[in-house]
């Protein structure tokens, strides 16, 4: 299958008039990790973008381990700090961001309250120009209708060390009446300069290979996807590390026990997997496909990669399976066909969230059905034939139309900076 051209990268054309940026501020961002790749991934992108625009950031997190590979170079202007147990010696920052409903430690809340009192002149004076910290509750991404209703609303605190303070809801979203999506200013230029052909050559992928990225939890329809891929000559599956690779190995095992034993990351996959002769595997690092005579599918188990390289992975593939929040946004910017594995919630609240996203996306029936089967909202066997050129072309047109709409809206950080200026 010929590789389609990379997604166009039109320049953003904000609907709102440009407004002056606020002065450089000190930001405190709090992140408690639930989804190891998603929560910290969003917070790191926000922190790095803030720093790139001249602000200083303290990123407080209970688990920074993923940043070792997600952002190994760090970012000038960003400090990554452990979850605080004491108030900071130099006080709270100008803006405090409570990401995804995490609970800021009481000592830090006390520091916010103290700074607010000082700013109001009711406590110890700290000099002219002192501002009260602005407390932002950065919520999860959703296309549901409540997001537009609740975006920007105040949430007064009635008890605890923060009694009398006000938090402000800030909702990411897909429409102009929400907080928008993270999109760093240089993204379009970087994407436009991306050499897709060279990337695929460097990773040992044939120029005409149908290339699919896999970043997921444990999708019920993974076996059906593998069956379709194995019937697609020259297909190449790029599996991200962690749960996606583990789920893939399990699905392959279920499909063909002859593929056992399944190796763990870094063990070198090739030798012990050749007996099945239904799929061949490259090593975790080398990414050199081994196409056997009877092989229909080449699989590469990818090593962890920094966020910019993950973006390139999405740009290089004809179809992207993504999960959670951060990778969904990046897949939308990639402009290629995508299937979203939404974070599953025990009360099935994610069902409404997925339907709302598909409605906003104006997903064609086959794309909608693929999402339902992939997320367990429909039988796995109902996964449509999604690798046909006409199907992928239809999905690509849908995603690129959505991408174009999003590019007309200000990005999340631009809107957040405007919100901070208006409320300060």
What are its keywords?
424 residues; 15 helices; six-stranded parallel beta sheet; seven-stranded mixed beta sheet; alpha/beta
Explained architecture:
There is one protein chain. This protein has 424 residues and is an alpha/beta fold. The protein is 36% helix and 14% strand. The chain is built from 15 helices and 13 strands. The chain has helices at 39-52, 67-70, 106-120, 145-150, 187-192, 196-202, 222-230, 243-255, 270-273, 307-316, 326-334, 349-361, 365-374, 389-407, 412-423; strands at residues 26-31, 56-61, 78-82, 95-99, 134-138, 154-156, 166-170, 211-214, 235-239, 280-282, 297-301, 319-323, 338-341. The longest helix is centred in the C-terminal third of the chain and has 19 residues, at 389-407. The termini are far apart.
Question: Mind sketching the topology for me?
Answer:
Blueprint: E1 26-31, H1 39-52, E2 56-61, H2 67-70, E3 78-82, E4 95-99, H3 106-120, E5 134-138, H4 145-150, E6 154-156, E7 166-170, H5 187-192, H6 196-202, E8 211-214, H7 222-230, E9 235-239, H8 243-255, H9 270-273, E10 280-282, E11 297-301, H10 307-316, E12 319-323, H11 326-334, E13 338-341, H12 349-361, H13 365-374, H14 389-407, H15 412-423
Parallel strand pairs: 1-2, 1-4, 2-3, 4-5, 5-7, 8-9, 8-12, 9-11, 10-11, 12-13
Antiparallel strand pairs: 6-7
Low-confidence stretches: 5-18, 123-128, 259-293
What is the tally of helical segments? 15
Question: Largest beta sheet, briefly?
Answer: 7 strands, mixed
- Helix content range of the residues, please? 25-40%
How many strand segments?
Answer: 13
CA distance, first residue to last residue: 54 Å
- Mean pLDDT across all amino acids: 86
Series of secondary-structure elements, N-terminal to C-terminal: EHEHEEHEHEEHHEHEHHEEHEHEHHHH
Tell me the radius of gyration: 23 Å
| Approximate shape | elongated
Structural class: alpha/beta
**How is the largest sheet built, in terms of strand order?**
3-2-1-4-5-7-6
β-strand percent reads 5-15%
């Amino acid at each position: 299958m010929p590789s389609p051209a990379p997604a166009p990268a039109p320049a953003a054309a904000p609907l709102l008039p440009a407004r002056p940026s606020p002065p450089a501020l000190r930001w405190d961002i709090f992140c408690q990790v639930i989804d190891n790749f998603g929560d910290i991934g969003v917070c790191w992108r926000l922190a790095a973008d803030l720093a790139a625009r001249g602000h200083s950031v303290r990123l407080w997190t209970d688990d920074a381990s993923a940043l070792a590979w997600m952002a190994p170079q760090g970012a000038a202007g960003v400090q990554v700090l452990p979850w605080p147990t004491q108030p900071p010696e130099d006080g709270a920052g100008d803006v405090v961001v409570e990401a995804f409903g995490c609970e800021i430690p009481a000592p830090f809340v006390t520091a916010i309250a103290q700074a607010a009192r000082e700013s109001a002149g009711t406590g110890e004076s700290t000099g002219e120009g002192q501002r009260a910290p602005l407390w932002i509750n950065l919520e999860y991404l959703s296309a549901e209708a409540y997001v537009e209703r609740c975006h920007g609303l105040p949430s007064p605190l009635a008890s605890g060390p923060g009694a009398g303070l006000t938090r402000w809801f800030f909702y990411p979203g897909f429409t102009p009446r929400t907080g928008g999506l993270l999109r760093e200013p240089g993204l379009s230029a970087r994407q436009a300069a991306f050499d897709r052909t060279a990337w695929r050559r460097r990773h040992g992928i044939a120029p005409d290979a149908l290339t699919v990225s896999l970043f997921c939890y444990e999708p019920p329809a993974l076996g059906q996807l593998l069956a379709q891929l194995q019937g697609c000559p020259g297909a190449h599956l790029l599996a991200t590390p962690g749960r996606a690779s583990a789920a893939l190995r399990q699905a392959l095992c279920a499909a063909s026990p002859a593929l056992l034993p399944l190796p763990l990351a870094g063990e070198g996959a090739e030798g012990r997997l050749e007996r099945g002769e239904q799929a061949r595997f490259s090593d975790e690092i080398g990414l050199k496909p081994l196409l056997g005579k009877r092989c229909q599918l080449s699989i590469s188990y990818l090593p962890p990669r920094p966020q910019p390289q993950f973006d390139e992975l999405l740009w290089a593939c004809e179809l992207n399976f993504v999960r959670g929040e951060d990778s969904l946004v990046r897949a939308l910017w990639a402009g290629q066909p995508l299937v979203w594995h939404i974070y599953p919630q025990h009360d099935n609240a994610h069902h409404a969230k997925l339907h709302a996203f598909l409605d906003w996306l104006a997903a064609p029936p086959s794309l909608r059905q693929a999402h339902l089967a992939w997320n367990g909202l429909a039988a796995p066997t109902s996964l449509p034939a999604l690798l046909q050129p006409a199907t992928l072309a239809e999905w690509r047109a849908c995603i690129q139309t959505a991408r174009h709409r999003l590019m007309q809206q200000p990005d999340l950080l631009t809107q957040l900076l405007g919100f901070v200026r208006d409320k300060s």
